[in-house]
Design a protein that fits this description.
single chain, 8 strands, eight-stranded mixed beta sheet, alpha/beta, 13% strand, binds NADP nicotinamide-adenine-dinucleotide phosphate
């Protein structure tokens, strides 16, 4: 079978982020149909030539591969609506918490891929964890994973790790945004314009991220490279240590993964 048409259920932030990287690189706009209850936010996609509809059954019927991009809370009602159209098709779910096992039981005649992308896919700089091929037809898997590959890095992970990866992947951009917000607030307190501080922190983060990816050093080694003995950065980091940043991050991971378990199946 030639897999080339994509049905997308839910045209929100994540769907649009994925499509931005995939359109005109791995898929033509007229090979995509997106359904969403309201069409006003889909203007950009429509202008590019993507078919948009309010009818989930239309996009489920359209796709050789169907991407489920609705909030976890409504996933089950959406499946009730379209499950008969998913028979023998490959279904890609990005819904936090819904396991591959659960989806396989719910859609026994479909092939299931779970993926956990993140918002920087919008700029082609995202990270996506994706389950292995594991029974999915090779061409369908190749087509489905290529949707994410053009938008950054993809990382194949066992299905039972898809909840555990959420904090480090799906949610981590928000952790970084929060840290920048806090740094900018502090900078403002010291008389530096907040907008400028946001940009400086963001530029520093982008550079630091690139160093991590390209220099072959660990985060710990790079931290050492910034710190001189008795210097300013060590003084700053001592507050992280004394006030328990590691415990805070540990707790954030626990809560994130626990919530995925509560939201999903
Ligand atoms: N955001 C992230 O960073 C991120 C990262 C990894 C995974 N995810 C996963 O991605 C999925 C989507 O999240 P999101 O952030 O993109 O949420 P979102 O922006 O709220 O998108 C969800 C979309 O689903 C639409 N929708 C609501 N009811 C629907 C229905 N019955 N049928 C079809 N579409 C319906 C919504 O339309 P209206 O707004 O018009 O009601 C909205 O456009 C979630 O399962 C989430 O766990 C998100």
């Amino acid at each position: 079978m030639n897999y080339k048409r994509l049905g997308v259920i839910g045209g929100g932030n994540m769907a649009q982020a994925i499509l931005r990287g995939a359109i005109n690189t791995v898929i033509w706009p007229d090979e995509i149909c997106v359904s969403n209850p309201h069409l006003q936010n889909l203007g950009l996609l429509r202008n590019q030539g993507v078919k948009v509809t309010t009818d989930n059954r239309e996009s489920a019927a359209f796709g050789d591969v169907v991407l489920l991009a609705v909030k976890p809370q409504i996933l089950e009602s959406v499946l009730d609506e379209i499950e008969d159209l998913l028979v023998k098709k490959t279904v890609v779910s990005i819904a936090a918490g819904y396991s591959q096992d659960w989806l396989r039981q719910r859609l026994p005649q479909s092939y299931i891929i779970c993926a956990m992308p993140n918002l920087p896919l919008t700029l082609g700089k995202g990270a996506t964890a994706i389950t292995p091929m594991d029974g999915v037809p090779r061409d369908a898997y190749r087509f489905a994973s290529s949707l994410f590959i053009r938008s950054g890095g993809t990382f194949i992970l066992p299905a039972d790790k898809m909840n555990d990866v959420i904090p480090v992947n799906g949610s981590s951009p928000a952790f970084f945004f929060r840290l920048v917000e806090l740094m900018a607030q502090e900078a403002e307190h010291y008389g530096i314009q907040k907008d400028m501080a946001v940009m400086m922190a963001a530029q520093s983060m982008a550079g630091a991220a690139e160093m991590l990816m390209k220099c072959g050093k660990t985060p710990e080694q790079l931290t050492q490279d910034v710190c001189s003995p008795g210097g300013t950065t060590i003084a700053a980091l001592s507050a992280f240590d004394e006030m328990g940043l590691d415990q805070m991050v540990h707790e954030a991971f626990c809560r994130c993964i626990q919530r995925a378990g509560e939201l999903g199946k």
